[in-house]
């Protein structure tokens, strides 16, 4: 798997079902039949990815929305996306 950067395109995998419950998300990977949970920030990111936003746009949205440094938000965003990619929940392209 490539090292994910803000230049990559990341999209939710079509084999993943999404349900929002009380501001958090439950994801079901139909291929592995495993459930995953996202906190409210992760759920926000998932929604942005579903709308087709590029990672630079997602990062900017996070900077505009949350009170944290751009560097911390980028680090957290890329770490989350790496975890989602390893779990087969998103696809990563150039």
Quick summary of this structure?
The chain is of the alpha+beta class and 94 residues long.
General description of the model:
The radius of gyration is 13 Å and the shape is globular. Helix 2 packs across helix 3. It contains three helices and five strands. The two termini are 12 Å apart. The mean pLDDT is 93. 41% of the residues lie in helices and 27% in strands. The strands form two sheets. Strands 2-3-4 form a three-stranded antiparallel beta sheet. A two-stranded antiparallel sheet has the order 1-5.
Show the helix and strand layout:
Elements: E1 9-12, E2 16-21, E3 24-29, E4 34-38, H1 40-50, H2 55-65, H3 70-86, E5 90-93
Antiparallel strand pairs: 1-5, 2-3, 3-4
Provide tags for this entry.
single chain; 94 residues; alpha+beta; 3-stranded antiparallel beta sheet; 5 strands; globular
């Amino acid at each position: 798997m490539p090292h994910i950067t803000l230049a990559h395109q990341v999209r939710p995998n079509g084999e993943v079902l999404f349900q929002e419950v009380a501001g958090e998300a439950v994801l079901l990977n139909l291929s592995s039949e495993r459930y995953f949970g996202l906190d409210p920030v992760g759920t926000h990111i998932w929604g942005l990815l579903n709308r087709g936003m590029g990672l630079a746009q997602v990062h900017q949205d996070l900077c505009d929305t949350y009170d944290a440094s751009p560097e911390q938000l980028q680090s957290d965003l890329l770490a989350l996306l790496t975890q989602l990619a390893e779990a087969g929940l998103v696809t990563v392209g150039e």
